[in-house]
C-alpha cells in the first residue's frame, strides 16, 4: 500500500511548461503550467480539442513531452506510475461494454500493479475489491456483466477500480455524462470524501453548472493553460468566454426582463447544452450561482 500523504507532498500535481507535439506535427499543448495541491478537487475545463485529453495522456505517460516536466506527488511520471499513484476513470465511449467481464473483475484490474507477474490475487487484493465495491454501493452487482449495468453504475465501477488501486491521483474524464442527478450527487459525495483523505482529483467536465459546487480549483485550457487557481477566482464570465471562444451561448437578463422592481442585479447564463452555469449579481460582478449562494 502507498504511504500516507504528508505535508512534504503537499504539491500533488505539478505541470511545468509542458508542450506536446504529435507525430503529424500538430502541437496539442503548448507551454502549459499549473499546480494542484493534495486534498483538492480540480475541474479541467475547455472545448473539445483544447488539449484536455492530451494533458491526461501526458500525466499517464502515454505521450512524449516536447518540453517541460510533470511531477506527481514529487515523483516523475514514470516513478509515479511504477508506484501505482495514478488512476484513470474513462469516458463511457472509451470502453467496449460488449466484452464479457464481471464487475468484480473490472475492479480487480485496479490491483494488477500490486500483484506479481502472473497476476494471481491474494487475500489483500480480494479485500481491496470488496471494500471498493462497498464504498461505491455496488457490492450486490459484483457478479453482473459490466455491459448489463446502467451508465451511472458503470461510472461507479470504474471509480471502484481506482479505489482498489489505492491511487492518490485520480483523473476523471467526463464522469457526469449520461448519469442521472442522484448518481451525480453520489459521485460528488465520494469525490469530496476522497479529497478529505488527501487525494488529488482532476475532473475533465463540460458540466459547467456543477463546477462551483464541488471543485475547489479550476484549470482552463485552450491549447495552453489560460488560467488556473481557486474556482472562486478563476471561474468567471470573462475567463470562460476566453476559454470557449464563442462556443457557449451567453444570455443576460436584467431590469424589467428579470425583475418586477428596481433591483439592479442581473442574471447571466452560459451553456453548451449540458448543465448551464448561472451568474447572479451586480453587472460585471456576477458570481456563479450555486445552492449555497442562490438568492
Topology at a glance:
Layout: E1 11-21, E2 27-37, E3 40-45, H1 52-59, E4 67-72, E5 75-76, H2 77-82, E6 86-89, H3 103-108, H4 123-135, H5 151-165, E7 169-173, H6 181-196, E8 200-204, H7 211-214, E9 217-221, E10 225-230, H8 231-234, H9 237-244, E11 249-254, E12 266-271, E13 277-281, E14 287-288
Helix pairs in contact: 4-5
Question: What can you tell me about this protein's structure?
Answer:
By secondary structure, the protein is of the alpha/beta class. It has a single domain (8-240), classed as Rossmann fold (3-Layer(aba) Sandwich). Helix 4 (123-135) crosses helix 5 (151-165). The strands form 3 sheets. A 6-stranded mixed beta sheet has the order 6-7-8-3-9-10, with helices on both faces. The chain is built from 9 helices and 14 strands. The chain is globular and about 60 Å long. Mean pLDDT is 85; it is low at 3-9, 250-255 and 289-295. The termini are far apart.
CATH superfamily, please? P-loop containing nucleotide triphosphate hydrolases
CATH architecture: 3-Layer(aba) Sandwich
Per CATH, the class reads Alpha Beta
Describe the largest sheet: 6 strands, mixed
Number of E-state strands:
14
Radius of gyration: 20 Å
General shape:
globular
Separate helix tally: 9
Query: Share of helix among residues?
Result: 25-40%
Number of domains: 1
CATH structural fold name:
Rossmann fold
Can you tell me the residue ranges where pLDDT is under 50 for at least 5 consecutive residues? 3-9, 250-255, 289-295
